[in-house]
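Researcher: Structure prediction, please.
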Amino acid sequence: MPMDGPPPYSSSSSAESSPFSSSSSSPANKGSTTAVVLSIECLKGTSKSDEWTGDMLQTGDIVEEIRIGNMVIKSPFKNGKTGVNKILHGSYKQKETSVRVRVRRGPDEFAQLQACVVPGDQFLGRKQYVLRAIDDPNYAVGFCDRTESECFNLQASRTIRMVSALESISLEDGYVSYPWDRRMHEMLSVPNSSSFYSILFLPKASDNSASRYNDLEDTLARAHTWINASQESGAPIVFMNIQTESLLTKISGDTASSRVNAGSLSDLSNLANTSLYGFEDYHGVDIGVVRAVRLWFSPLAGEIPIEVKIKDTDTKLGFAISRTQEGFIYISSVIQGNDDVPSSRSGLSNMHEQANRTSRLLVVSRISNQKVLPWMVSTTGAIRCYDTVSLSQKLSLHRHTRVPIMMHVFLWDRNTNFANVGSIRARAMSTCTHSSPNEIRLANENNDDPGVVLPPSSEDVEGDDDSGGGDAAEIKLERDTAGEFSFRFRDFAVNKNNWL
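Model: Predicted structure follows.
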């Protein structure tokens, strides 16, 4: 801009010097490479490493001019970095933070940066100010006092420094917020409950005092036996994964099968097949590490919610529950030939019939959104699972109170489609238990499209034999370890006195 005299903040060859520029520059020092100049120090690169291109400022560039608003400061700079930092401090306090820096690279190459002034780190009790690029706030530069020869050397070593930066760059991580509550409600069939199923096998005690335990191979063999027996019994599950799981406990000195010496790594080889080993903590307390085995499994074709609605006139639910030796709850029998019971209206009877045709059990995975699958095997070998007595009582209370039953069952055929599954899933996720949804209708065997789910026709119902009034039913009750009064139905025959 035209002015009558020299700019108050720029260098000048006249006798009147700028208070922010050096007062004089002798001819002897003007071309000397030992003269101290104001140089650029790249503090943080751009998001795309554009600081290595010719358009961006680089470490070693020589500052020729600084513009802050209407103020122009040219080289040479009085007091170097300290003087410029003082100027930036005053501009920042006056909220004049827009800066344009022009630099020289080599004899005749120039570049400039449009940035803003921001506070940096403290140095010798004074706050240092840095410049952040307007178009990329990640890119930050500062100022440094160097000799001109040092600047030329840095500029010449640009390629070497790029390779060094590539080798030394580290990836940064951090935390980002996530809407867990909303996503867990939207993405799960049952809110706040996963569809990952597992059972934990503790090592079996080899004596009555539980002071010795079988090795890890024995625990793995029992887990393998359980999954094979479950599939053999008709439970529609598949093996997913198996892993060891360490559990800490306090033990006596003679209980552990093996002990770890902290000063010797050779002892670790003794732990390969050990199910329980011990060590002492810093306070001399014996700590035991139990190596349990967790087996992960999943339904053969997923699981589906079924809502069993109850009318005021219903006197029975129309189905009976039982439990396998492996701990799975399943629908053992349903009333046939009566489509006015809850089990028939909900489609549970037809699902049970289809499962029987494929020699599969209709396994119940959840009741009222609570998992009812086996989840642990104790050191005595007993399987911890739900007993049928308490489940029968809960289901009967649903009938007495006329509260619909939300039940999830394992599917066994991926090719079988069920109508209104989306709406059923939405109702399963709803907290309201008194909605009036459409009922589940299962595919009829004679339907042209086996993937379409329809209710059984009246001809099919009338043509079925009445299995509800046969010979007297023989019920065999067997005690087990799941509860004080738990029992299992075996050879369950349909009798009007046995339905829930």
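Model: The chain has three domains: 27-167, 196-298, 302-375+384-469.
Researcher: Thanks, that helps.
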